[in-house]
Amino acid sequence: EAAVTQSPRSKVAVTGGKVTLSCHQTNNHDYMYWYRQDTGHGLRLIHYSYVADSTEKGDIPDGYKASRPSQENFSLILELASLSQTAVYFCASSDWGYAEQFFGPGTRLTVL
Amino acid sequence: QQKVQQSPESLSVPEGGMASLNCTSSDRNFQYFWWYRQHSGEGPKALMSIFSDGDKKEGRFTAHLNKASLHVSLHIRDSQPSDSALYFCAARNTGYQNFYFGKGTSLTVIP
User: Fold this and answer.
1) Which of A74, B73, B76, B108 has a beta carbon 3.0–4.6 Å from B19's, enabling a disulfide?
2) Contacts of A101 in chain B (CB under 8 A)
3) How far is CA B32 from CA A63, A97, B43, B49, in A?
4) How does strand A73-78 pair with strand A65-67?
5) Are A2 and A99 a contacting pair, CB within 8 Å?
6) CA atoms of A60 and A32, how far apart (whole Å)
7) What is the Cα A38 distance to its own chain's centre?
């Protein structure tokens, strides 16, 4: 079965610090996504990628960077973490743009 | 402005009952829809897609799409306690690379 893993599963960071969230997929999918989930907001797209070494901005990219060094790996980087970035972050992959997205288990990030 | 609106925000149905969830989009170009389900503490998981007008049935789940009214619904027949979860509608048009997700409907099935 398709598998998307995320690390770490939870993290506490300090305001102004750097945070890197990692995602790995074994689905051989071209598309990968980073979402954040907040109560009352549903899922919002931060960055996505449809090919290695290239990333695209989603709906809420401010304060986030993304890196796709290989087809299997996709990272989300918070250079200067802020309180407002406290949320649950999900990574997902899909075979093509209209296809089912397979989500990872999520990373709970708390910025203090 | 939220491009995809879901209603109701929360819903309770008795075990064995029918649950009906709704989704409307503000963009007439949205043509492609997915329903996802998220159990507490897990990532969302796809239930079914619907890209054409009409009904699509998969087991106890039936999706209905009416592109003219920008409305899609999900009906869960014979609801089970394991169906208790957060349900998301996701919509996309041909001009955008990705899907927009609604805020979700929280379903509780009461044994």
Assistant:
1) B76
2) 34, 36, 44, 46, 99
3) 30, 11, 21, 8
4) antiparallel
5) no
6) 16
7) 14
Confidence of residue A2 (pLDDT cuts 50, 70, 90): low
Tokens representing B98 are 């990705």
Q: Which of A58, A53, A71 is nearest to A4 (CA)?
A: A71
Digit-coded pLDDT (tens) for B16-55: 999 999 999 888 888 899 999 999 999 999 999 999 999 9
Give yes or no for residue A50 having a pLDDT over 70: yes
* pLDDT value of position B98: 82
Given an 8 Å threshold on Cβ–Cβ distance, is A101 in contact with B49?
Answer: no
Q: Which residue of A has its CA nearest to B41?
A: A105
The H or E element spanning position A38 is strand A31-38
Taking alpha carbons only, the member of A60, A27, A35 closest to residue B44 is A35
Place of tokens 């931060």: A46
Contact B50, B63 (CB under 8 A): yes
- B62's tokens: 């039936």
